[in-house]
Write a structure and sequence with these properties.
35% helix, globular, single chain, 6 helices, alpha/beta, 7 strands, seven-stranded mixed β-sheet
Length: 203
Amino acid sequence: MNEQQYEQLLHIQTAKPQQGFPSSVEYHRYEPTPYEALDLLRDAYPLESTDTIVDFGSGKGRLPFYLAYTFHVRAIGVEMDGGFHEESLQNLASYTKKHRIRGSVQLVQEFAEQFSIPSEANRFYFFNPFSVNIFRQVIAHIIESVEANPRPVDVILYYPADAYLHYLNDETPFQCVQTVRLPLKNLHERFLIYRFDMMESSW
């Protein structure tokens, strides 16, 4: 399906990217992950209905709605921009009317570095929503959560920034376990899955 068909299926409006620039230089412009890319991720990296995924920089909520609909998971969107948060709440009302029993979507307006990691969250999604300085803080919170409530967790990166990769590879216990490439795209347009499992880590 194309972008318009997916928007109609999910009963949401997430397509228009951000105009102008965010108020904070630490946060990047909103751009939704293309549905074409999400379909490839869906096929290569299926989720279980017991998974809880957190989307940092969720914007208008495309990823949480897509994954809740597709896999019946619990999906949490974390967005610091009040305008996008309001649009995501409108999308939630519209989605729920049509797909009440397909997964669970929770939308939170909060800065990512201040968000409290739920003890059951085991998947974390990033499409370069903010600077590596904030990314470091968020990953540190995820690691702290795993240490307090041991469980395997995955970090899913789309179009990953080099600074993110250097940090994960050099300074954290996360290990890259999977690459999902988009056909006929440039080498940077890909998903990378990083995993931290305390049972298998010397961290």
